[in-house]
Amino acid sequence: MTAHIENTREFTLKTSDGTKLFVRDWPLAGSAAPQDGVFIMHGLGEHCGRYAHLARFFNALGFVVRTYDHRGHGQSGGARGDVPDTEAVLRDARMLFNDFSKNLPAPPLLFGHSMGGLFAARFATAGLAPIRALILSSPALALHMSGIQRGLLKVASLVIPGVGIPNGLKTTYLSHDTEVVAAYENDSLVHGKISARLLNSMLQAAEFSHQHAAQLTIPVLLLVAQQDHLVDPKGSAAFVKNLNPARTKAIFYPDFYHEIFNELDATRVFDDLRSWLEQQHFTPLLAQST
User: Fold this and answer.
1) How far is CA 82 from CA 102, 166, 168, 245, 272, in A?
2) Which candidate, 157, 170, 216, 232, has a CA 20 to 30 Å from the CA of 27?
3) Is 90 exceeded by the pLDDT of residue 149?
């Protein structure tokens, strides 16, 4: 278990099936009034503690932030890398998102990375809750899967649907920063498992998101690693084509690996995100000063 992070609120919330989900909220120091919020969904095999730098970034702009560990991940309950059914991740997210939203003056922004970005897209395109804007970081809107791998998935879905097997993630391609890779590989809360049920849930989420992308009316920002060996960036490109161009901005980073916010030149990504937030007039501290 990771140590408590200063100036955060850590607790668990129980799902309808009794699974305890670990939550870490990032309030603004000295502020008792409701603030604009950002809800963050992490990727496969990792945990919300890896997003501390992003949460602090949003805090500095005046947002309160909620991060949490998906079931089967980090400090949350559930079998590692598994879900009981294909809708479980979305049910959990909706419960935590609505709980977060009830204390805010406006719907939060929804941010998701990789698998979290995929389920964030599915959450938004399904209209599961009011969202102010959608921000996707290298979302898993398409996966690198061969015909043989898809065949094995069908077999596993019938024989061992809930068994966590190695996810095949090549950690070398997380980032060009070797310290990031080493920290990931030595993180006790990171696991390398995925079940057929979770993978099927991801594939279904991708299909739904592409089919319903045109229905999105909120602002959407995609920040995508072009040299991504973990998810297929073509999925993001296809998703963008179905979105409203007047409400969408997509930035592709030609030389970046998967974790763009952990790359050697991540400052570019943070600057692009900050600029977009300012252009959309989402930044609370700037709004208060005008």
Assistant:
1) 29, 12, 15, 36, 34
2) 216
3) no
